[in-house]
Design a protein that fits this description.
By secondary structure, the chain is mainly β. It has a single domain, classed as Hexapeptide repeat proteins (UDP N-Acetylglucosamine Acyltransferase, domain 1, 3 Solenoid). Helices cover 10% and strands 34% of the residues. The protein has 3 helices and 22 strands. Strand 1 and strand 2 form a beta hairpin. The radius of gyration is 15 Å and the shape is globular.
Amino acid sequence: MEDTKQYIEKIEELTLGKYKMPWEITENIIELILEKQKTLGDDFEIKDGIAIHKTAIIEQNVVLKDSIIIGANSFIAANCYLRGGVYIGSDVKVGPSCEIKQSAIFDNTSLAHLNYAGNSVIGSNVNMEAGSVLANHFNEREDKTIVLNIDGFKNTLPTKKFGSIVSDGTKIGANAVTYPGTFLDKNSVVERLALIKL
């Protein structure tokens, strides 16, 4: 794997060329967001490390913690919880009661409702149906090591928390779950109720 750009075309909108590997991006996402905030125009309202575009809609009971960017025309539905550093591009829809932690989500992507995205990098034009989960930690086993496998290239990650690389154009069915360290190539389709175990 050379870098994340070959799977997520707009990745440099956040990284500004600083980090190339997806686990580096999620581990350093607060730093990246704070740097990116310095480049935003006056069409963003920035307060206490949270930048929201003036055209974005944030419904009631949304909790926004740590450093966040929410882009133009994006929609965050009621009762969502965004924490640990979250980057949301333009025209993103996050449905009711989703939780997003330490993750980046790029343009025209939709999370339906009751989704969890932990320590993940999600490309453009992705659709996550209701209840789908990007797990970021091996709670169920003693060995918490995460190994990322892309086209036969295996890399033991230097972190115990990393979710998925969800490449541009991917569709994830309702109630599907991806293991920590999952890689989904461009335009992948994950069936409903699937468990992606690599």
